[in-house]
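Figure-free illustration: sequence to structure, shown twice.
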Amino acid sequence: MKVTDILRVKGDMPLFTIDPLDPLAHAVQTMAEKDIGSLLVLDHGDLVGMLTFREVIQAIHRNGGVIGDSTVRSAMDDHPLTCSPDTELDEVRRMMLESHARYIPVISNRKIQSVISFYDVAKAVVDSQNFENKMLKAYIRDWPAEGDAESQDHVKV
């Protein structure tokens, strides 16, 4: 399974972006109003960082419990993990687990396609396992009974 499989199920979702010089308070307001956990930080259309609730909380902690006049740039992750639509899901899971990342931008030909979350990855894995379980159960249910096997001239070993 690849990232493109997640994107196909997810469909077209809006990308929420912010400028690195915007006030952090504006980012928090946007994240709260849109009920999202991350913002792509773009400077002249280029991805320069990622802001998640984790970076916001760390910035508030560093600033004595207040947002103050902090900018997005002062809080953002300026080296976010990225993947492509062709990245294998197992690789994305490994990357996310090793770095504790909850969100990863998907980039193809230097263009941001989407952002996938840990939830998206977990859902894809669970859905895949559920499908495999259903197929295995159907296979087992259709397995010939002992008597049926002998009457069909199957050779027992």
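We now fold a second protein in the same way, so the two outputs can be compared directly.
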Amino acid sequence: MNFATIFALGTALTVLFAANPALADDDDDDSALISVSATGSATSTPDIARLNLSVQREAKTARSALDANNKAMTEILKSLRESGIEERDLQTSNFNIQPRYQHFKSSSGPRKPPKLVGYIVTNSLMVRVRDLKKLGAILDKSVSLGVNSGGGIAFSTEHPAPVIEQARTNAMVNAIGKAKTLTEAAGVKLGRIVEISETNRQPPRPRAMARMESAMASDAAVPIASGENSYSVTINVKWELDQ
């Protein structure tokens, strides 16, 4: 084979591959894909509650306000321990000493400077209650012993892993169902799964507690409704299409 023949053959092959790029690279992945996002949820009955109980006392001096606050908080801690709350479930979450000033209004002339009239001491306690049957009585007793401020109450599941796993399973079932609906409408079939990713997991939201003042007006235990918690998981799944 002479040089002219070899050159002509090479030119012909170049033209052939240019016209058929699939022949030039058999490893290129030209598979059609479908990507679906789906969310699954699962519920559980709460078995633990978190409370934020605060004692706030005011006096003319910081020492007096602190002594009054310490006395009330000591009684509250004693009562909580007697109710079966363990030491691991009691944690000081905030302590604050704040001066209180009286401000004067002036219609004319220079305004008088604020006058220090006292101090406010706040001591906040985070409490985990594992026996929810005692929750209402604990709230009532705490208010009776001096709790006069507080944040909220949040119900949760101490070991949520099985519930979250069920939410993941439900999310996958929903993703498969959605993908089948789409492919059947398009007249194609699902191939193999090429990618699965989890994009979002939502913990249950804490439920707000009624203000402490409402409990102070009654001698009965505070009525509590724990309801249930819902956990959500969102996943993305990608399939090849079998056309």
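Summary for the second example: The CA atoms of residues 83 and 138 lie 7 Å apart.
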